[in-house]
Amino acid sequence: MEKKGVILGGGESGIGTALLAKRKGFHVFVSDQNSLSSIAKDTLQKNAILWEENQHDLEQMKDAHWVMKSPGIPNNASIVTQLEALNIPILSELEFAAQYTDALLIGITGSNGKTTTTMLTHHILKNAGLHVGLAGNIGTSFARQIAENNYDVFVLEISSFQLDHIQKFAPHIAAITNITPDHLDRYENDFGLYIKSKLKIATAQQASNFLVYNADDKNLSDHILSASFKSTLHPFGFKNNEESTRQTTLSEDHIQIQNEKKTTMIPTNSFALQGRHNLLNAMAAATIADLLKISKSVIRESLSTFQGVPHRLEKVLKIQKKQFINDSKATNVNAAFFALESMEKSTVWIAGGIDKGNEYEELLPLVHEKVKAIVCLGVNNEKLFGTFEKVVDVIIETQSMEEAVKIASKIAQPNENILLSPACASFDLFDNYEDRGNQFINAVRNL
């Protein structure tokens, strides 16, 4: 009898899983609480996959052998709890897809820096001549990549939501860039639950696997050292632990990768990206490459040619000597912290959106030092006003990107920055952070 797989959610993750499951001989049913896109419907119909939209019909799912829950659906959603009550296994896309590939897997997670680290790692491995795919929380889903391509190595950007339902998924190399409060609305406003979710990336690893992690992040480091993971630990950061036989640190203008048998020095003076946080991202990517025996010349060259991530501290235009910077990807407080920290000129800061349980107090010293005005862009800006109105002279509420950019441009003087770094999710006024960043770019160009 043909086994049945049910997929909740018809986005990139859901459609990719449906395609892979179909090719592996499953009877597949896709269910989405919202409307499916025309592209998704066309793909499902071409592949003879059954689907429904604008509802979840439990009767259609009761005979499922497994259910893949798309990462955007909360764990406590009614349909999820109903399926769990029927003892139907709930899988993540990663868990389902990984069993159908023999490729070497590299999984990268963290609250901030995971996209840059993932893309930089992929860039290095591709330059080294490896047949490497890029997937996960970035671009094409992991499942679709396996269904349509045959890569030797996958570099996966992985969110906490994607890790929530894994049990056996174990990347050969896992990397955690940092852990700061984010998405707490999905984790009962409990930072401990969020940390636990992130650390699942290493739970099933064995001694032959590696866990690369930011040792400067005390929360992360403490949890890893107390977790008794089986994997081989390789910390990175600016603090040098003289007792460690395996670590990556910064030595003057070199990334120093120390393994048990050798030390590799990678010069950073030609690294294309700026900022302390990007050096940490480079340390993580260089460590992963070194563990895969990539030559230091390829790593060095790749660091110098990497162009960065769209919507992450992206310089848009300079108008009347005012620099406009798009950091729409900064969807949490820690990401905004990195952005503000990197500002070397007086800055007008455009912030706001959907608050995910944010606490802005850690930004107060930076705002006091670097920000001359805040332009709030979001439906609910009370917390921004409450936190910052005493440390900046000007704080203004706006309701559209066009209005925010015009006001910020009027406030800024020549040789100052106008920074979009929202510290919040984008779903109140925009489709996603890309839409928000693109609207910012268009508004700047239309000034």
Q: Any key phrases for this structure?
A:
447 residues; alpha/beta; Rossmann fold; UDP-N-acetylmuramoyl-L-alanine:D-glutamate ligase; Protein-Tyrosine Phosphatase, Chain A; 3 domains; six-stranded parallel β-sheet; six-stranded mixed β-sheet; 16 helices; 20 strands; 35% helix
Tally of distinct domains: 3
Give the tally of β-strands: 20
What spatial order of strands do you see in the largest sheet? Answer: 7-8-6-9-10-11
Structural class: alpha/beta
Give the count of helical stretches. 16
Task: Describe what you observe in this structure.
The chain is an alpha/beta fold. It folds into three domains: 4-91, Rossmann fold, CATH 3.40.50; 95-305, UDP-N-acetylmuramoyl-L-alanine:D-glutamate ligase; 314-445, Mur ligase, C-terminal domain (Protein-Tyrosine Phosphatase, Chain A, Alpha-Beta Complex). It is 35% helix and 21% strand. The chain has helices spanning 12-23, 38-46, 78-85, 93-98, 114-127, 142-148, 160-163, 191-203, 218-225, 276-291, 296-305, 333-342, 364-370, 382-388, 401-411, 433-445, and strands at 4-8, 27-31, 50-52, 66-69, 90-91, 104-109, 132-136, 153-157, 173-176, 210-214, 232-236, 247-251, 254-258, 263-267, 314-319, 322-326, 347-351, 371-377, 394-398, 417-420. The strands form four sheets. Strands 7-8-6-9-10-11 form a six-stranded parallel β-sheet, with helices on both faces. Strand 13 (254-258) and strand 14 form a beta hairpin. Helix 1 (12-23) packs parallel to helix 6, helix 5 (114-127) packs across helix 10 and helix 15 packs across helix 16 (433-445). The chain is globular.
